[in-house]
UniProtKB/TrEMBL annotation:
It comes from the Bacteria. This is DUF4188 domain-containing protein. InterPro entries: Monooxy_af470. Residues 149-173 are annotated as: Disordered.
Length: 173
């Protein structure tokens, strides 16, 4: 019986260190629409700067209500992604967001072809992705930076914003 489905697959052998990242920004409060509209274009179009290692960038819409926009990115390797994340203007955007989420929430999940996954959920009220089935824990200490969470602390270990910058007067650490 002949099929009408044109099935295709991909050969990823040229991308042994491929990294896929899903990110989302969710409006938690009405004033968060303003935050989404101001930050969204900044994080939603990194391809405009043609960062080294970014293979593909795609915009997504998770939901209209609450407004929840997202992106999916494909990176050549983890060092390329981490270098871009630590560059301007992304580093400044991330620092400012972590100081005040502006009525929004942000999350990302990272998947490495060579193995390893990690995620962060900042001001996300509903459990999604890994958080819907895996135990949550504070992103503090060794779990603060993404390279350590993914099990690759040797890959550019300094987080975009250090724990000391985010919690400067925290005697509980």
């Amino acid at each position: 019986m002949a099929t009408r489905v044109n099935r295709q697959t991909v050969d990823l052998s040229s991308y042994p260190d491929l990294v896929v990242v899903y990110l989302g920004m969710r409006v938690n409060r009405l004033y968060g629409l303003r935050t989404l509209m101001s930050y969204g274009p900044q994080i939603g179009n990194p391809a405009a700067g043609n960062p080294d290692g970014l293979l593909r960038h795609e915009s997504l819409m998770w939901s209209l209500f609450p407004m929840h926009m997202g992106i999916r990115q494909y990176w050549r390797d983890l060092p390329s992604l981490l270098a871009w994340a630590r560059s301007e203007p992304h580093r400044l955007w991330w620092r400012d967001f972590l100081r005040n989420s502006g009525g929004t929430g942000f999350w990302h999940e990272t998947y490495l072809l060579r193995g390893g996954m990690e995620a962060i959920y900042d001001d996300i009220p509903q459990h999604r992705g890994f958080a819907a089935f895996a135990p949550l824990q504070p992103a503090r200490g060794p779990m603060f930076g993404s390279a350590t969470r993914i099990g690759r602390p040797h890959d550019n270990t300094a987080p975009v914003v250090t724990e000391e910058e985010l919690y400067p007067q925290d005697p509980g650490r």
